[in-house]
Amino acid sequence: MRQARFLTGPATMRDPIHSHKEKIMATFTAAQIEEHARALTETLEDGFQWTDMGKIVSESMQIVEDVVDMTNEEKYESAIAIANYVIDNTDTPWVPDGLVDPILKKAVPWIIELVIDASKGKIVNKD
After folding, report:
1. Can you tell me the distance from the alpha carbon of 108 to that of 93, in angstroms, rounded to the nearest whole number?
2. Which residues make Cβ contacts (< 8 Å) with residue 97, sequence separation at least 6?
3. Helix (H, G, I), strand (E, B), or coil: what is residue 31?
4. 3-state secondary structure (DSSP) of residue 10
5. How many angstroms separate the first and last alpha carbons of the chain?
6. What pTM was computed for the model?
7. Considering all CA atoms of the chain, what is the largest pairwise distance in Å, rounded to the nearest integer?
8. Distance separating alpha carbons of residues 103 and 115, to the nearest angstrom
9. What is the per-residue pLDDT across 71-127, written as a single tens digit (0 to 9) for each?
């Protein structure tokens, strides 16, 4: 498995409160990814549940989407790192983490790719 690469210098992030032309500077490093992942972990009110996978992946993707000076590959790897941190630092009910965490972590890249394909119109609902 590839090791995630993180920015070591400043990354420009969009400021959602101001106009799209205004930008703020932020350092998006491994430490900041951990900070975002911790904040995401705290939003899981009743601990980690299977149904939280969609939320975890969605929120991870949203966090990195706001970083402008990252390539798509860096955003992809960072979203995976955030989701994996949440999986590693929460307990799954009824099943030992040693058994379920590797399975969930294998699913994260697949779910991200599925969301990306769906956003590009590659997945069509035939209903």
Report:
1. 19
2. 91
3. helix
4. strand
5. 37
6. 0.71
7. 48
8. 19
9. 888 889 989 999 999 888 887 777 777 888 899 999 999 999 998 888 888 877 776
